[in-house]
Structures are given as C-alpha cells and as structure tokens.
Amino acid sequence: MENGKTIQANCILNKCTRTISSSIAVVTGVIGIFHGIAEVLQGDRPTIDIGARIGAFSVIPNYLLTGLITLIISGLILWCGFCLIHRRIGPLLYLALSLLQFSAGGGIAIVPGFILGFITASQIRKPLVFWEKRISEKWRLRFSSMWKESIISGFCLLAVGILIWIFLTPPVKVYDISITQYICWIFLVLGFVVVLFGIIAGFSRDLIYSKIRPSLSNVNEGKLRDN
After folding, report:
1. What tens digit of pLDDT does each residue of 93-107 get?
2. Torsion of Cα atoms, 163 then 166 then 169 then 170, to 10°
C-alpha cells in the first residue's frame, strides 16, 4: 500500500498547471529581455536613474553591464520555462533565476509575475488538496471550461500593456505621469487578474482530470502482489 501511494505521488503531473507556469515564466523572461535591451542602449554609463528611466532596480552600477547580464539571465529563464519548470528542481530554479533577474535590472513589474509563477509551478507535481477543499465540484466544472480562454485573454491584456510601454513610453528618457501610463498599467493589472483567475480554472481542470484518470496506485499494487 505504501509503495503504491509513493508511486502515485511520483507520477502526479498537473498538465494545465504546467502549461500556465511555463507561460508565466516565458512572459517574465521576455519582459526581462526588453529591459535588458533598453539598458544596453543606454550605453556605458552609471545606472543612477535606472528606476525612473527603465523601471528597474540593479545592484550593478553600469547600464551596459547590467543590460548584458539581464539578457543572459532572461534567456536562462526562457529555457527554464520551456524545458525545466515541470521538474522537481524547476520551481526553485525559476525563483532563483527570477531573483537574479530582478537584482540585475530585469524590471520591478516582474516581481508579482515571478512570485505568481513560482507559486503556480510549485503545484505542478502536487495533488492540489488545498484547492480541492475550496472549489466545489460544481464550480470546478464551470471554471475548468474557461481555463484556456482566461489564460489567453490575460496574456493578451498583458501584451497590450507591454506594447504600450515599449512603443508609446519607451525607456529612453524619464517621463511625467500621463494618461498613456495609466492606460498601460490598467492593461497590466487587468491582465494579471485574468491570469490569476485562469490559474484557478487550470487547477480546477487538473482536479477533474485527476478524478477520471486510472488509479496508478491500484494498478501498481496489483503488480506488486503478482510479483
């Protein structure tokens, strides 16, 4: 019995949660790349105005160097999101890279994103007991049918906010607060909220799937008895 439970726990892989976590990691990686490019374009000069100009924080006192390091770390985050986020070391590796990215000029706005991404990724190989107790079967069915649409809509809203930042308020100078920046942040906040709902919907989908897939524990217990 104990061996069967261990095998079942090791076989858990919440596919919707994995997809969402990977997508969040890719988005934070891409945002870091944009910040890195903006910092490299500032040239070989001190980062004394990086907060007001780029919207970032860096422990490295040089724009060119901090931009190059941000590009490297952001590339590693993309690799982690595509290839490693579902592995046992994946969530912690993503968190460590994200903290390095933030410290090297990857942007202040990515902080809520990578925290959410880490929390979501940490549920990829867990049985989602917390959410099973808090989402009734009725609402699981309703939420699960909306997980893809919610995630796609949320990332589209985030994309609009990012594009407004890049093209309408590019990080080449210090801007006064304007209606454009308010619109940018409205899209970013709305996108974050919709993605948050999409995560809960994804959990619901994985909970439903976990109930209908064959019980690996029973199968393996039978094999152990036969042997």
Report:
1. 999 999 999 999 999
2. -170
